[in-house]
Automatic annotation (TrEMBL):
Residue intervals passing through the bilayer: none
Leader sequence residues: none
Protein's recorded name: GNAT family N-acetyltransferase
All copies of domain N-acetyltransferase, residue ranges: 10-176
Residues forming coiled coils: none
Gene3D superfamilies assigned to the protein according to its UniProt record, in alphabetical order: 3.40.630.30
InterPro entries: Acyl_CoA_acyltransferase, GNAT_dom, Ribosomal_N-acetyltransferase
Amino acid sequence: MFTMHVDDDVELSIFEPRHAESLFQLVDKNRDRLGVWLSFPEKTREKADSLAFIRKSLTRMADGNGFWAGILYKGELAGSTGFLYIDQEAGRTEIGYWIGADFTGRGLVTKAVRKMVDYAFFELGLRKVNIQTSGGNGKSRAVPERLGFTKEGVLREYEYLNGSHHDRIVYGLLKEEWGEF
């Protein structure tokens, strides 16, 4: 199992098939909350859906094209973060993340994303990391802003969820900017 130590309470652990039940339960418990901003909760209706997601993530990891990891807080699955893709030729990736309601307000996502940025720049040798968030999701937008990302643009009415269109905010960070914040 591939894990990344973040601090005494937080670890990132690559999802494996054995995580399917806990992943499904966390998504199910937070379905309404997450579904306001993200499309995957609607597609996650049973443990088998989480297992299929994990298998796809492991295939992408084996292909060198991204992966998803659980954010573990004191050993308990609290949320997830991952590289949506890895473009070695262009030297860039995009990080996604979400957290369960019971784990908000502890800085877990910021810590996890900081670790993922370090991994992208110093382990994968990439030169740019992007994060995209829904324009209306202030808590999600705070993560890249807190970590020194630059707001690069707004994709207007980019996504249609729950009967309404949402803008997408694009943030970017270059390797040489990392650590300047």
